[in-house]
Structure formats: structure tokens, C-alpha cells
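Can't attach files on this board, so I'm pasting raw text. These are the components:
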Amino acid sequence: MTKESLSRDDLSSDARVRSDARGPEQTRPGEVYSPATDIFETDEAITVLADMPGVKADALQIDLRDNVLTLTGRVARPESGYESELLREYQVGTFYRQFTLSERIDQAKIDAKLRDGVLRLELPKIERAKPRTIQVRTG
Amino acid sequence: MLVRRVWPGRPTFNGSLSEFEQARREMLRLFDSMANESSASTSGVFPPLNVTQDEDSVFVRAEIPGINADQLAISVLRNRLSIAGKREIQLEQGKAAYHRRERPEGSFSRTLTLPVEIDAERVEARYSDGILTLTLPKAEAAKPRQISVRT
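---
Top answer:
C-alpha cells for the assembled complex are below.
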């Protein structure tokens, strides 16, 4: 499949995420943020890089079903109860984002690494069945 | 949904963005800034900082995902704290086609004036999970002191 069709799919998924966020998403406790994400594609795989500062490996959920990839990362408040606030430029909450993948992904070979608050997710494509030429016999 | 955009002028990958997509992002950005005044006031600042204090120390936390800790330059002089560094994102070489490029990169530098003087000798810095945490003990002279009244 081509780059364009994935972009288009991406777009529609993004719109869906936004409507989701106004619906079920708001019933979750705490605030929800969309992580900054890079996505690139080669012939073999789709790679997703997402900035999720403060998320530990055990608080990160990656879910892929029906070609919908969902990333959820919870961040616990780092402050102790004795600290009083002087300046707050970022809020702590949950990172959440969904993408629709129009490419078939080999679920068994998915590889996820979380390092220094950056998720690197490798989604290998399923090898396409090789086109077969069918001989037509005359007779 | 709240979308955090710390760098409004971040590089976008023009090759994969149509004009419509660019316009759409601008609109969303505008809506976000209208919806959330407080985030608008801090957008464009990297890294975002949270500063707290208790009786003994000031704590500074910064969201700087995916950097090398040894590329950070942190200095404290009296009550001024400086954090500088560089975030580099390696582009994929070869035939990789980018669909999205949102993650910010580049050099950054921030200087903060704290409400109290800091004991620079005992400052501790820790970097884990993409969060830089600085523990800045207050100078002895800046700590609240109990004064006993003699009768």
C-alpha cells in the first residue's frame, strides 16, 4: 500500500480519537494528553516513536486489535505531599493516542522499547504472498 | 483532549503534509490555545518546568524525553538556575517515508530565578524516564529559623 493511503487513514483515526476524547475518555480520572509522535514506514515495517516523559515500562499499555493501535501511559505524580508549588508549566496525567494502521502487522514480531521517556515501537508488516503465475494449459 | 505543544514552531515534515493538513493543524492549535489559557502561556518554552519547595529544598522537574544526560549543562549561582542542552533526533536513513514528525528537537536553554539562595555544593540532579529532577538545598541563611524568646 502507498504512503498516501496510510496518511489518509491516519487522519480519520485522529478525528476519531478527538471524538473519543470528548466521550469515554473524560470519564477517566485525571487529565489526558496526546504524546508527540513520529511515524515512519519502510518496506518492512512501520515505526512509531512517542514522547511519553515520566512513563515507566509497567505503566505503559500498547494494544493492537482490528488494526487500531492504542498507546496508553500513566504518569504518577512525582511530588511528595510536603512540597508546595512555585511554578507549574506542565501537568501530569495520562498519555493516550490511537492510530489506525491499514497495513497488516505481524503481531508476533512487534517490538517495543521504552527508554528515557521515549517509546519506540516496531510494527513489522506481514510478508505479502508472492504473486503466482498460473499457467493456462491449452488442450 | 488537551494537546501539549511545547514548540509551536517545531519542524514539520512538509513532504507528507498537504496544505489541508497544515491548515487543520493550525486550527487545532488555535482551538487548543483558546481552550486552555494556561497552556498557551507556556507554549513555546522547552523544556517545561515544574518547581516546588519544602522547608529544606527547592525541587525542579523538567520534561526532557530522549536525551543523553551528559549533554545537559546545569549550573547554579546563588538563586539563579540554568539548564541548557540539546535534543537530537536521528532521522531514519534510506527509504523510510515519514507520516508524522511532531517530536521537537534542537538546542534549549532556560534560566530561572528562584525565590531563595541555593547551596550550590549540594545540588543533586537525576535523569530517569525522560524527567530531569533537580534537588536544590536552600542555603542555610535562607532557611526559616526558630527564634526562642528569652524571658
